[in-house]
Amino acid sequence: MAVHHIAVLALDGVTPLDLAIPAQIFTARRETPYEMTLCGLNAKVATNAGFTLEVSGGLERVREADTVIVPGFEPILDLPDPVLGTLAEARDRGRRVVSICTGAFALAAAGVLDGLHATTHWQHLDEFERDFPAVTVDRDVLYVDEGDVLTSAGVCCGIDLCLHIVRRDLGAEVANQIARGLVAAPHRDGGQAQYVPAPVAAAGDASLSQTREWALHRLGEPLTLPVLARHASLSQRTFMRRFAEETGTTPLQWLLNARLGRARELLETTDHSVDQVARDCGLGTAANLRLHFRRVLDTTPTAYRRAFSQS
What we know:
The protein has helices at residues 16-25, 59-64, 81-92, 103-109, 125-131, 157-170, 172-182, 209-216, 225-231, 236-247, 251-269, 274-280, 286-297, 301-308, and strands at 4-9, 34-39, 44-46, 52-54, 67-70, 96-99, 117-118, 136-137, 143-145, 149-152. By secondary structure, the chain is α/β, with parallel strands linked by helices. The protein starts with a strand and ends with a helix.
């Protein structure tokens, strides 16, 4: 695989966790082509946690990169012209430009997001929308993929976005391998709500994670809402409410996304027919699988296999 150069641009006030996400996901691995460099305007960058970082690359390294990632930072102040110019140049040259959390403020200030949809941390959405009227703000998503420009919501949503990028580049199997190494969920669709009102189960309530795990091992079976609710020992109404509180999506949408993820892995790693893949992942028929691939991924199972097959 050709080397894909990634520059992670740490701005003063960078959030260490936001910075660690791309550093961990895009670190060099045998199965990936990524070469990552931590960059900054100066050799030392102050974090918002009270310590400083030494970076190995400057803005010239950012200009050479195939993908530029800007982690979140605070306070959100006016940025130096060289930084804004470098980000604008990356966009003009067709490079992939990505932000995590409040890193979107840097992309917007550079004009990279003008005319596009974008998101950022839910606590800063009003400020972002006010300061950058040329950007269409998506408030209830984990991340936004506009092709070569991608933005994520707060902190951990950066994991979802970076895994999404790996999935786009290298397929679901490689992305899931990395996710397992991180002990992270293998895929949360970008359309899920970024701010879940009750992300932690209330005292005395049991999380539905066991039911979700149970379902992931039975995707080829007829998993209906009554079946899922019965496994969780809840009424259907309570199950739907609790599921949405924990995941920000509905049980059936979550199940469809899981089945598409499984189909992608099977297409990459087996020579099973499209009909067999459709049955094994629970989508029934090849026609139904093609319908969902076209609707969600804008491709066909056969074309996807040609692009990502490991055989």
